[in-house]
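Example 3.2
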Amino acid sequence: LPIGQGSSRTLKYNSFNEECIKRKGIISIKNNDNLCLPRALVVAKALIDKDPGFKKVRQDVGKLQEQRARLLTEASGVFIPEGGAGISQLQQFQRHLIDYKIIVYAYGSKDRDVIFKGSGVGPSLNLLHHNNLYNVISSLTAAFSCGYFCEECHVPFNSKKVHRCGGTCSGCHSRLVVPVMNRVLAEKNIMLLMRSLEPSKHDKITYHYQYRICEKNPSM
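Structure, written as tokens:
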């Protein structure tokens, strides 16, 4: 984690599997086939969709998880080699799941390392990857041991109040729309926009600005 942002993981786990099983916010995928990725995707999708059968999908009751994983793989036209799925398979699944955004975080020392970020426009299907294994992230804050996790910048923080992306209101911490590319001009427009609106309306505005301070200066 960046210095001063978020809390460090305690080194009390002996392996990726052990940590994922014991840590809240991560759903472990148990399988003996090469369907780890589609299994993780159908579990994440059931979670996001608030599927009434989520628990059965998660626990693979009646092989429901496997059935959905095979159906998704077939519908997406994906071939998964025996060694497991990689970037090309992720791209194919993303093209099929256009109403969702697949985001895959790399397990390791830097919690915010993203190895794949899909082009979908809907809710995120967050996965954790290690050695061709995919698990589901059900809570980013619990999985990465932080009080707040910015999904736009993929940066964990102890508190939302210390996270200051460009365009963040210092009062309500919402991000505002600034349809310009120049950083200095954007920040001036942000201040003008904030002053013209009541704080209660800030959370209804979407932030759109390609340069993000926390990406360029993680220590801020």
